[in-house]
Write a structure and sequence with these properties.
6 strands; alpha+beta; 31% strand; 129 residues; globular; 3 helices; 28% helix; 60s Ribosomal Protein L30, Chain: A; six-stranded mixed β-sheet
Length: 129
């Protein structure tokens, strides 16, 4: 039987304490990352530029992966939630800077809104450590 442990990178404690969710949960050699958004921390507004938001979301995902001892090369799957799909090509260009071959599985879902006003994307990932 495997043990679960919460992965909480430095600077992400707010989410665990305030909203009662872990940025990621490790179960054996699997890592389940909560959706990461494009802002620099609690109380900050997301930048208006979609590409900047996408980069911040990937950098936040990087912090979660690194806190578990992983990197983007360990990612098996991502699910992205997009408010509108008009920025999907820009998102794909930013994604290409972070995820390299062999590419993970990817599902992109259009949604009407995310938890914070002004967000364009949320990125959830699953990785094997």
């Amino acid at each position: 039987m495997s043990k679960r442990r919460a992965i909480i990178p430095k600077g992400f404690e707010f989410y665990y304490e305030q909203f009662h969710f872990a940025p990621a949960v490790q179960d054996g050699d699997m890592l389940y990352c909560s959706g990461q958004i494009g802002w620099a921390g609690p109380g900050h507004k997301p930048p208006a530029d979609p590409k900047e938001q996408f980069k911040l979301a990937f950098e936040n995902l990087r912090a979660v992966l690194e806190a578990a001892g992983a990197g983007f090369e360990h990612v098996l799957e991502i699910t992205t939630f997009h408010v509108g799909m008009e920025h999907i090509n820009a998102f794909g260009a930013v994604k290409a800077d972070y995820l390299k071959e062999p590419y993970p599985a990817w599902t992109a879902i259009g949604v009407s809104a995310l938890a914070v006003p002004g967000l364009y994307v949320e990125i959830r990932a699953t990785a094997r450590l």
